[in-house]
TrEMBL record:
<keyword id="KW-0285">Flavoprotein</keyword>
<dbReference type="InterPro" id="IPR051260">
    <property type="entry name" value="Diverse_substr_monoxygenases"/>
</dbReference>
<protein>
    <submittedName>
        <fullName>Alkanesulfonate monooxygenase SsuD/methylene tetrahydromethanopterin reductase-like flavin-dependent oxidoreductase (Luciferase family)</fullName>
    </submittedName>
</protein>
<dbReference type="InterPro" id="IPR036661">
    <property type="entry name" value="Luciferase-like_sf"/>
</dbReference>
<feature type="domain" description="Luciferase-like">
    <location>
        <begin position="34"/>
        <end position="257"/>
    </location>
</feature>
<dbReference type="GO" id="GO:0004497">
    <property type="term" value="F:monooxygenase activity"/>
</dbReference>
<dbReference type="InterPro" id="IPR011251">
    <property type="entry name" value="Luciferase-like_dom"/>
</dbReference>
<dbReference type="GO" id="GO:0016705">
    <property type="term" value="F:oxidoreductase activity, acting on paired donors, with incorporation or reduction of molecular oxygen"/>
</dbReference>
<keyword id="KW-0288">FMN</keyword>
<dbReference type="Pfam" id="PF00296">
    <property type="entry name" value="Bac_luciferase"/>
</dbReference>
<keyword id="KW-0503">Monooxygenase</keyword>
<keyword id="KW-0560">Oxidoreductase</keyword>
Amino acid sequence: MSTSDTGAPVRAPLHLAVALDGVGWHPAARHDPDARVTDPASARHWVDLATTAERGLLDLVTVEDGPDSRNHALRVAALVAPSTTRIGLVPTVTATGTAPLAAALAALDHDSVGRAGWRLTTPADETRLPGDRALGTPAARARHAEQLDDLASAVAAVRLRWSAGGGAADRPPQGHPPVVALGHGWETFRLAARAADVVLTTPVDAFGAAAVVEQVREAEHHVGRTGPPLRILGDMVVLLEDTDLAARDRLDLLDAHEMLYSDAAVVATTPSGLADMLTAWQRSGLDGYRLRPARLPSDLDRITDELVPELQRRGAFRTAYDGSTLRDHLGLASWSRGARVEATVAS
């Protein structure tokens, strides 16, 4: 355990990721008075965001898939790979078509020289089926469990293809690029324990974070996970300004255009205030965070230029990249071709 510049002990440095989606996670981000509205379909938009995140030494960026553009996230990740050198690139991809998916992710890992990951798209914890009167019916729960089983099987199939790769081009440089899953409850935590390397969670406070960590560890035990423990990251939407009042005013202004509804905590504060929150919640057992900037690029700029230096001063974040691959950044052991491929654990 290291100490900060105040002499206070801190845990291992945080893992930090950012979630990139259009011009920001707030649906009214374009209406922000300081918005630098760019075309989110342009190459420059995505390259600028990824290089800004890399300047902040972040572990990875995730890219959401477009609502009307299948494989948008994969294309964006491939687009920015040549313009970045260290940051992990993790597109959100639906697990359909095992062979082409394995090949596409392997190609991204080659293009980025070992920095690819894969964020699974997962069904919501509660699924409404045709004819259901309410969420959470037995039929809905059964369908949800079936979807999660299918997803775990798809991950196992992709990993087997990576391991068996018919040639060097089919074998990712990392062996197995990290898999990231978003979990909202017990069943999706079990999926993450069976199939993922990183689980994104959505606690709303420190007590909730501690409960989430306990539940994730219980899920790992329940499915008999034998690999390294999941890296547990807390998700939150962040809007950063010079003062708390200014941040809350900006959030209110955006909400007046269109209300933000989020599965994760919405935090409107200063970079220093956010650093206080991140380090406090870390004591609940979280390994780090995926921050969802409410406005792009302004909140990402503040994450890189103000939050990161504040965390570094506290000894809570890296001051340089220690490795070159995404597995390095996440502290995951290198995967060798001769390693045993974990089969999907029975539920």
